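Recall that a protein's primary structure is simply its ordered list of amino acids. Everything else, from secondary elements to tertiary packing, is in principle encoded there. The following example makes that idea concrete.
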Amino acid sequence: MQRLLVIEDEEHLREVLIYLLEEEGYLVDGVKDGIEGENRILSMAYDLVITDIKLPGKDGLSLLELKEKHHLNTAFVLITSYGSVESAVEAIKMGAEEYVTKPFRNDDLIRIVNRIMKYRQMERENKVYRQALEEKYTFSENVIGKSKAMRNVFDIIEKVASYDASVLISGDSGTGKEMIARALHFNSPRHKHHFVPINCAAIPENLLESEFFGYAKGAFTGAVGEKTGLFQQAEGGTILLDEISEMSHSLQVKLLRVLQDKEVRKVGALETSVVDVRILAATNKQLKEEVEKGNFREDLYYRLNVVNIDLPSLQQRKEDIPLLTDHFIDKYNQRYQRRVKGVNREVMTALLQYSWPGNVRELEHVIESALTLCEGEWIDLRHIQDKIQIQNNEIDIMIPQEERNLKKTLEKAKIKIEKEMIRRALEETNQNRTEAARLLGISHRSLMYKISDYEI
C-alpha cells in the first residue's frame, strides 16, 4: 500500500485531507509542524509528501530540500497561499512534482495525488520488469562473502558453471545450497531456460516418480489426462534435487538411468523421451556416509558427485556476518520501504558471538524481524534479544572483602578464567580441539587434561 504524509498546521484541513486520501485507499500519516515532518520524512519511506509552505518550526521549502540532500525517492506536493506565485515557482525548480493554491477544491487535489501515484506505480513496475529481465544470480551479487571458505566456493562456481557436469552441493540447513545452485544455473549457457528446484523430502514418496517423470493418461485411477514431469519442464535448463539423501532406492535406480541415458519414461508409458537437462543435487547429510550405511547407491553417488561444493556453516565464516547483515538490511529496507541504516556496535558484537545453528537463513530472519521492530535508523539490542541468546563477554569474579586467604582466592579466579577461555576457544573453532589448543597457546595434551579436569 502506498504511504503518504500530510504536513499541515491547520488541524481541520489536515484531518479532512487525511480522511479524503484514506478513502482513496492510501495509508496516510499527518503531522502539524515542520520539525515533526522532517523526523517522519527521514525515518519512514513515503511515496508522497503533501506539505504547506508556511509551517511552524520549519517551512515546506526547507522540507523539500531534504529530497535532494538525502536522495529521497519521494514525491512532493506543496500547498501555497493565494497569490504566492514566487513560492510555487521556486518549489517546482527545487523538485516538487506539483503545487496547489489555497483555497483549492478537494477534487482537484485528489486528482493531482492520483496522477502522481499512478505514474510512480508505473515507474516501479517498469523497474521491477527491467530487473526481472536482467536478473542473473551471479555469485558476486547474490552469494555474499569475503571469507576464504566462500572465496573457494566462488572459484569452483566460476570454473564449473559453464559445463554440464553434475554438481553435489553439501552443507548444513540454512547455508544457502539453493542459492549456490541458482548461481551455477544463471551463470551457465542454460540461463535462458528454466531452473526447477525440487525438495525430495517435501513430496510424498508415492508421488515422487510421477512428479519427476510425469504420467500417461490412464496410468492409474484418476489419471484422466497426461502430465508432464518436472524433468521435461526443465528441458534445456537445470534441475536441483534438494535433500537427495531422502530419495527411495527404487527412485535412485530410475534417476541413475536418467543420468546415464538422458531419457525419462512417464509412469504408465511404454516409450521413453529424451531430456536435455543439467542435474544438480543438494544434501545436508554426508552422502558418502549414507553410501557406507547402505542408504544411498554408490554408483548414483559418483554420478552426482562429479564436482562437490561443500558450504561452510556461518559459524565457520563469521567474518562474513557484517557483509550479510548489510545485505539483508538493504533487502528488507526495499521490501518494507524503510530507511534503517544498520546495527549498532553492541548488536554487531552479539551477532558475531552467537553460534548460528540455523546459519545464514537464521541471520536473515533475525535481521528482518529486527528491522520491522526498529523505529529509528539503527537496530539495537532490544530488537534482537528475543531472537538470539546474547552473550556477556565479561567474566565476573567475586572477591569477598573479608577474605584472608588470597592465594586460595587467586587459584579460584584462575580456574574460572581458564574454564571460560577454553569454552570460548572451543566455540570459536567449532569444537576443534587441536585448533582450540593453538588459539590458547597450549599443547593439545594439556588442553585435553584441562577439559577432563574442568568437566567442560
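The CA atoms of residues 134 and 174 lie 27 Å apart. The radius of gyration is 31 Å.
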